[in-house]
Design goal:
The protein has 110 residues and is mainly alpha-helical.
């Protein structure tokens, strides 16, 4: 039979564990939502890529040293940057998920 102090400590420990798991789940959901938003943005840009007009510099327009501003391949550059951002967000989500499972594994072993 446990004493009242031991029971109270166990209740507090379990409460902290539940709060920690809820926080982890909330962060995981937020990370997954960020990855999904980035993926949807990338898909939207890729889908609109053929529709993007190639801006042509008129006779009176000055370029001011901008190589990509009036280039027809600017859409591909945007897609590349967005794909890079998506890759970073997926990598961070995977690292977070891996750390989560390592903590659970260590907690289960002890």
């Amino acid at each position: 039979m446990r004493s009242e102090n031991e029971q109270l400590r166990e209740i507090l420990r379990r409460t902290e564990l539940v709060k920690e798991r809820r926080g982890i789940r909330a962060r995981l959901r937020a990370s997954a939502a960020g990855v999904l938003a980035c993926a949807l943005l990338l898909c939207a840009v890729v889908a609109s890529l053929p529709v993007l007009p190639a801006a042509q510099a008129g006779p009176g327009m000055q370029r001011y040293g901008s190589l990509l501003l009036f280039a027809p391949y600017m859409g591909y550059v945007v897609v590349g940057v967005l794909a890079f951002a998506l890759g970073i967000s997926v990598t961070l989500l995977c690292l977070f998920y891996r750390r989560l499972h390592e903590k659970d594994r260590v907690r289960d072993e002890s």
